[in-house]
């Protein structure tokens, strides 16, 4: 195998084609030159190439047609267009179709090498970013939980520790902070992951229905009970039952739930014989249960049974560094869903996002982004569009730590993930006393990859040696 980068060169002017081929060969690249664009595309295999260079005016197939065929098979493969007839309209057309750069004839060999070097460096950087995104998403991100802030990482660290311990967990936090996602993360990282995860909103049902939904009932137990009904505890047997807004449970249901947590058994409505099931209970609330206990609205003994482990999700206003990451994620999902190409927020609009208080937290942010994307007609969501969805502050824009050039949906996602990975690797090196082999094993990386990342982030393993 070779580490040399591979370039596909297409130009029907044979003399110029051979000159460019030799210049690039002398610069250390592997080159395959074609003077026939049709043949080049017939033999084109995306995985064989790191860059394509093509003339724009050629018989049989134009450079724009070559560009289109390349992008149909390899969207991320950079393409440089060469032309002697550059116009603004042509440049715009080429760039819109995905060209990385345009080189106007005549040009010096040094300029060709410079443009090629830039294109390959940018492509390599983008691939590293995609690789980093995949690594973090697959290994560290707990499925759909998006964020890299220290506050969220602390929660996820606790999730990793408690998931394998079959104990009750109480998740607290404001409405819209993602409590059910955390509950799912606990379930899917536990031994129960292959069994059902069942959720119920305790505040969304009347008292009479809630009791029968949870515990089930026997035919004839009450008016309308025309058949035996399995409750959610039965349905979740072997898995996890998530009680959202558990603070809304009425007292009689609290009593039955307490007995289940103590004995792992309950009695269906209309029955006298208890039913035993194996279910882990995870609950969540946006209320102050301690205050509810003081007021006599929530049983103290049940509170302690549910709150064996507490996971507190901070509000979005305390996770400002996660906002660009979440915004990029929601934009990406909407682009996929509706076939749009919104790239991100303009700088001043992102400043507002990061300074807004977000009383509805992540759920509100998601809804705001969906509304903005429905109205936005350009590549970036503007302050004007954002102002149609949320109330903008009066006076000058607030200064935030995210006030830099946060434009693309790639930039904030990558930057946040890099911070996450750098901090994680630093913690692993510290934990293992600078032993790269042990740190690599826990991170799920090979040692060569870890050494590369240590160099990338400027970490010094000697500083962590025992």
Describe this structure as you would to a colleague.
Helices cover 47% and strands 12% of the residues. The protein is built from 19 helices and 14 strands. It has a five-stranded parallel beta sheet, with helices on both faces. A five-stranded parallel beta sheet has the order 7-8-11-6-12. A two-stranded antiparallel ribbon has the order 9-10. Helix 5 (109-140) crosses helix 17, helix 10 crosses helix 12 (300-306) and helix 13 crosses helix 17 (410-431). The two termini are 39 Å apart.
Salient structural properties:
single chain, 466 residues, alpha/beta, Rossmann fold, Helicase, Ruva Protein, domain 3, 3 domains, five-stranded parallel β-sheet, 12% strand
pLDDT < 50 runs, ≥5 residues: 137-141, 400-412
Could you give the count of β-strands? 14
User: Helix fraction?
Assistant: 40-55%
Structure classification = alpha/beta
What is the mean predicted local confidence, pLDDT?
Answer: 85
Q: Architecture of the largest domain, CATH level 2? A: 3-Layer(aba) Sandwich
Q: Radius of gyration in whole Å, from Cα?
A: 29 Å
The biggest beta sheet is recorded as: 5 strands, parallel
